[in-house]
Fold this sequence. Notes:
Elements: H1 2-21, H2 33-46, E1 49-50, E2 56-57, E3 61-66, H3 71-81, H4 84-96, E4 106-111, E5 121-125, E6 137-141, E7 146-151, E8 160-167, E9 174-177, E10 181-186, E11 189-191, E12 198-201, E13 204-206, E14 224-229, E15 232-237, E16 244-247, E17 254-256, E18 264-265, E19 271-274, E20 277-285, E21 312-314, H5 317-330
Parallel strand pairs: 3-4, 10-13
Antiparallel strand pairs: 1-2, 3-5, 6-7, 7-21, 8-9, 8-20, 10-14, 11-12, 14-15, 15-18, 16-17, 16-19, 19-20
Helix pairs in contact: 1-2, 1-4
Amino acid sequence: MAVEYNQILSNIEKYISDSVKSNSCLSFDDIEPSSLVEALAEDLVQKRFIWLGNETYIPNKLVGTLAIPDADKLEELEVIFNSNKFVSLINAYISKSGFKMFGPLKLEIKFGSQETNKKFIMEFCWPGEEEAVEDITVKLDESQGRILEVYNLKPEIPRLARLSLVSGEAYSDNYLITKVVTNIGRLRNVIDRDTGKLIRRNDFVFARNINDDSPNNSVSRQQAIIKFNNGKFYVHDNGSANGTEIERAGFEPIEVLPGNPLGMQLEHYDLIRFGTALVRFEDNARIGVTVDRDALEPQAETEAASHIQTTTVKLTREQIEAEMRKLLDSE
C-alpha cells in the first residue's frame, strides 16, 4: 500500500513539475514541486478528524497561496491546480489513504502577504462561516481529533436552483445556487491587471482551455450573473464578448441584452448559452447532500420545495464518549 501512496505522490510531483516547465509565466522560483507535495501529504495527516466511529474525514477545501501579488501567475496556478489531472490525482491519494470528505474537493488559489513563504504553498482548510451559504461547516475538538457537529449549508434564498453543464468544462459540473447573486465566468479570480486587486470571484466557473475551439474560450471572465429577486431567478449579461442567450422549448433563442437592469427571467429547464457553452437551469432544486446518510440527513422528498430547511447534526458528550470507546475497542 505504501508503494501505491508513493507512486501517486510521485505522479503529482511530476505533473506539477512538468506544468511549471512548460509554462512561460512560472518558474521553480515560484513553486518547488517536491516540497509542495511533501507538505500536502503531511497536512492531510495533521488535518484528519474522526467522525462517527472509525471514519476519518479531512477538509474538502484545498487553498493555494501565492505570496507576491501577480495576476498572471495567479491565473496560471489556478489553471494548473484546477485541472482534471491534478484533481483526479489528489482524489486518488485521499481515497488510497482511507480518508473521506463531506463534499467534492474545492480548490482555491489566492494572494497571501509579503511575510509568508515566498514559494507557492497549499493547505487543506475547512470552509469558513462565511461559506456556510454554499457549503457544510463543522465544529471540531482539535485536542481529541474529533468532529463534534456537522451543519448543512444555510442558503441565503428560500428556493434553490441548479446549474448543470451540458457542453464545455467547469470546475463543478453540477452547481447549486444558494445565494442572491451568482457570478458566472471563466476562471475563479477576476484580477485587475493594473492594480493586481481582485475584481470579483466567479461561482460557476468555466476552466481555461488550450484548444481554440473549446466552448470555454467563448466565455468571458465576467460573463453574467444570476440574481434571485422576488421569488424568481433572472440572468443578466455583463457585456460579454460573445453574448448570453436562453434556449426555451417552443421558442426562438432569447437574447439576454447587456445593460438591462431587469435581466431575463429564467424558467425551469431553460438552457442558457454563455458564448457557445451550454448550461441547464433547474428551478426548485433540492440540496441533495452527497455525504454519508449517517453524517447528514438529505432533505426529505416530502418537504415543500419552496421551503428549504437545513439539517443540523449534534452529538451529545455521552455519544462522543461512546464513539471514542468504540474506536479504542476496535484498535
